[in-house]
Amino acid sequence: MSNQAIVLLPQGAGYGVTIGLGLVFGIGMILVSRFLSKYMNERSDHSEMFMVANRSVRTGLTASAVISSWMWAQLTWLFILAPFWYAAGCTIQIALMTVLAIHAKAKIPNGHTVLEIIKLRYGTAAHGVFIFLCLVTNILAVTSMILGASGVITALTSMHVVASTFLLPLGVVIYTVAGGLKATFLTDYIHTAVVMVLLCFLTIRTFNNPAITGLGSFYDVLVKRDETRSISGNYRGSALTFKSKGAVIFGLVHSLGDFALVIMDTSFWQKGFAADTGAAMPGYMLGGIAYFAVPWAVGTTAGLAAIGLESSSIFPTYPRLMTTAEINAGYVLPYTCMAVAGKGGAFALLLVVFMCVTSTVSAQLIAVSSISSFDIYRTYINPHASDKQIIRVSHWSVLGFGIFAPAFATALHYGGIDLNWMGYFLATIICPGMFPMAFTILWKKQSKAAVIIAPLAGLASGIAVWIGTAYVYSGGITVLSLEGQLPCLWGALTSTFSSAIYSIVITYIKPQDFDWRVFLLLNEVHEDKISTASNSTPSKEGGTDAVRNIRDLDSVVHPFPQAEISRLKRAGGIASIFSVVIGLLTWVVWPLPLYRNYIFTKPFFMGWTVVSEIWLFFCLVVAVVYPLVDGRDVLAKAGRLAWGAITGTGKEGKEQKPSSSTSTPESLMSDLANEGSVSHEK
């Protein structure tokens, strides 16, 4: 059966969503930006707003943004363990990022990008290495998103894959240029709200359709399917067991890659800098806990339903089974939604895909633009660049990357690289820099030589092991052999931990004694041209001339009051404990007792599914309802401003006192778009 025969939606639906909705969000963000600028002095043409949203994002929107950042992840389907590992492999990373975000907020209160921190501490050479590593991470992350999304859109609508690849980022580019990071937070919230409602609908519909009439029926369908198929590496070949060699390998590779996707993705650091000092820890923690339900619940229901329904007459590919190419391209979820909910389910998934990918692509665009403007243009091309010049470069960077990313994804598509290949390959390439990056924030002894040599040596080691083991296992180097689970696992493990070993060994040969107060030399960007410590010439020790010119670092004043600094220290301790607990729960206490010769019984399976579904609705509350409750006061004020603008009784922003990163703006939309410029007290 051809792909054309199983398409349920017309091509017009694909073009309507990718172009129509994209333009709606773009135009809407332009209007919102003008409203904020005119009435509330929240101007996206200022760097502090464009890059870090005035550092005042509230807990609710921080949590929503964290959830949104992982929505693009491809959900797996082969067995009940895979969705769990996908969830565990994202949650622990968010927990670790909570620790790093708190330390960054406390030590670098005026930071914009993590790369300018590398430059300030280690100098130009290290800065260049990490610019390269972070750009590679951003490029591969965006490419994976676009490859997965374009494949799903093609499966749903028969829209040409190249058309969907290039049209998906269109609206994202428009509203990102218009609103900067505040546009990312605002659209994150809107996208996540739509996605969570649709996911709740699709998961419930999975066990309430003509072929599956309830959880008990769902289990019976899966047991019957187990009788006619066997999954290699699973206990008794069952899809209802936790004992699965393939799932564990998948979980390890996926988790290592996701560690790097968090630490090496500068957009996560920017969201940490953008969060209010009282919002970073609870926002990241709440978002990480809530997100666990998305891959777990959706993978358990829709993913397993693909197995049970694949031989049913309601499945789109019937009477044939799905091909490996369809599975690797990400068609499993589209086919399942078509089966359980018909055209309505197909269109719902089309919206889900669009919302997930465009939201996360926006964050990637901001990340790349910040690297181009702050870390390349302002640092090496025009050190005395004004705020207006930095914004101009940021806008051109967004446009340029918005064209390059889909072009690169198209090249990979025609080169035979699919989403599954990218998912396994990713960790080997992006993991080498994450330990040296984390050490930059957490370990004062790491030396300049270590931070330069370790990631490059780790990258070379990982690639060598990846290619070498692929050759040994398969007898040749091909696209297919390089996609193998074991070569990708050995490559990822080598890239990750060899760089840590290299860094530690090199550091102990000649350790650095870094003074954290040097980070306080970073300044905010204002309308007048400025020169910060990050623009200074590196010293032999990896610091800056600006540091040498300050004889007594005690003269450097921390912008936060002592009470705020103490609160951040306590938050860092809590976040560290939280990370350890989350790691133990999701990787030891919960899964290991189930990793035995055991197949889920009907009562256990029903309880497992119900808990995952309840958790999914909890995620809906955290991502959609809580931000409204958290920002209700600002919503009310914004509503009054909007009404005043409509009736002509409101005051324009220029008549109000301009807001700062520590003041409370008298506005609503600024809290939604700008993450609420209200400082949370203890």
Could you please describe the fold and organization of this structure?
70% of the residues lie in helices and 0% in strands. The protein has 682 residues and is mainly alpha-helical. It has a single domain (3-417, 560-673), classed as Up-down Bundle (Amino acid/polyamine transporter I). The longest helix is centred in the middle third of the chain and has 50 residues, at 332-381. It starts with a helix and ends in a 9-residue tail after the last helix. It comes from Lachnellula hyalina. Keywords: Membrane, Transmembrane, Transmembrane helix. It is a multi-pass membrane protein. Pfam families: SSF (PF00474).
Descriptive terms for the model:
682 residues, mainly alpha, Amino acid/polyamine transporter I, 25 helices, disordered N terminus
Brief summary:
With 682 residues, this protein is mainly alpha-helical.
Helix/strand layout:
Elements: H1 3-6, H2 11-40, H3 47-52, H4 59-69, H5 81-107, H6 114-122, H7 124-157, H8 161-206, H9 215-226, H10 245-263, H11 266-274, H12 280-291, H13 293-309, H14 324-328, H15 332-381, H16 387-414, H17 419-430, H18 434-442, H19 448-474, H20 485-509, H21 545-549, H22 562-589, H23 602-630, H24 632-647, H25 669-673
Helix pairs in contact: 2-7, 2-8, 2-15, 4-8, 4-12, 4-23, 5-10, 5-11, 5-12, 5-13, 5-22, 6-7, 7-8, 7-15, 7-16, 7-17, 7-19, 8-13, 8-15, 8-16, 8-23, 9-13, 9-23, 10-17, 10-20, 11-15, 12-23, 13-15, 13-23, 15-16, 17-20, 18-19, 19-20
SSE pattern: HHHHHHHHHHHHHHHHHHHHHHHHH
* Number of separate helices: 25
User: Ranges with pLDDT <50 over ≥5 residues?
Assistant: 1-5, 46-55, 74-78, 524-542, 544-551, 652-682
What's the overall geometry? globular
Which radius of gyration do the C-alpha atoms yield?
Answer: 25 Å
Based on the structure given, which CATH architecture is correct? Answer: Up-down Bundle
- Total strand count, please? 0
Mean pLDDT: 78
- Helicity level, as a percent range? 55-70%
| Strand residue content | under 5%
The level-1 CATH class: Mainly Alpha
Per the CATH scheme, the topology name is Amino acid/polyamine transporter I
Number of domains: 1
